[in-house]
Amino acid sequence: MLDLLKTTFGYADFRPLQREVIEQIMSGGDALVLMPTGGGKSLCYQLPSLALPGLTIVISPLIALMKDQVDALHGNGIEAAYANSSLDRHELYAVEVAAVRGRLKLLYLAPERLTLPQTQEWLKRLSVSLIAIDEAHCISEWGHDFRPEYRKLKCLRDLYPNVPRIALTATANPRVKRDIIEQLGLHGGKIFQSSFNRPNLTYRVVPKKGAFERLVAELRARPQQSAIVYCFSRKSTERLAEKLVQSGIPAAAYHAGMTPLARSRTQERFIRDEVSVITATIAFGMGIDKPDVRMVVHMDMPKSVEGYYQETGRAGRDGLPGDCLLFYSPGDRVKYEIFIRQMADEADQARAREHLRFISAYCQLTTCRRKFLLNYFGEAWEHDACGGCDVCLPKQETPQTTAAPVDRELFEELRAIRRALANARHVPPYMILGDRSLEELAQRKPRTTQEMEGVFGIGKRKLEQFGAVFLEKIKRFTDVRSER
Question: Which helix (H) or strand (E) holds 295?
Fold first, then answer.
């Protein structure tokens, strides 16, 4: 499996827990995997799918997420496809034929499609070796993003009683974890849980009074660095984006009310650093693989701790410092309580009140915020101060980003590699970093070829396909900087 990891994905070794999860799957056992955003969950089923003889079915909740995953797999030379409402009947038929004829290794499906009788009849004709349920917290009524259609995934036990199943999520407290196991029948499987701690992130909660002025000051202190600003409503995202642009900050709004084309263009502009700030509802972010987001801001109190943790987890995915800022007002709690009282179902009300209770407690903490988050997810934290939240940091030590000088020679080398990647086939657009990301990269001077491969989101094997000249360039400037 390690050889397969190197030759197909280009990584020299596994991340923490990946090896153990893959060994469990290859032995025919079930698994529940809890890893933070950016922890490498996808590889836990993508790599076994290549070694297993049949097809791997992946249940995924979002069309955009499916497309990004399939594009990335194509970029590594892996046959994969998705079947969802974005395809017309001819395209769906082509996917069905490819799956029946054994031409695919991974097939992505939405939970709604999986439960259709015609889909189940088609699936009975396939040789399935593994089933992966992504964003598994959606199956729990106590999860922050509960989706009733996920409860119907029980049919997988009847369709494929002897096929191993792997459920994956970045956000599940002990109660949600138990619910996932019960709903999917994973009682005989193993649980793999990595630490929820993101030591490179700093958490801050500040009063909402003067929030816009404070936001502008924070963004100006990080010129041209990528940030996501979450708002409560669609109108709020649009108004805030307009005000930021008027203040000289390149920003764009993103929400589910926009057309698919408009959302796609906004996302691509952000990925390519054409705009540095996205003002968004929670519709933005899932599956967005932009490693250099330096700041995540919540203009309003989130609905749950799980949602907050998942959204802040989009900062600092490259391992460099990220700042998480939340503007809080007691009025936010009152606003949510009004919405909760309007819910028709009493069980929904009870769940919403529990989420509100915990996120309100987080916002009003006078003790370590990191400790609260880790304890919430069932992880022990023995320290009383983390040194990475506003409660634990002295007031004058609020994190500020200081930019190192850009190595112009290295920057031009990176641009040359990017141009080559942009002209290569099967490379998804979101893997091509924009100029601001390249400048930041040139500031911190990557020291190894492996780090360079990770920065561009592709493996060594794919780089070799682009030509030895680009590998040689990477090796040349990384070797020079190692000597320095």
Answer: strand 293-298
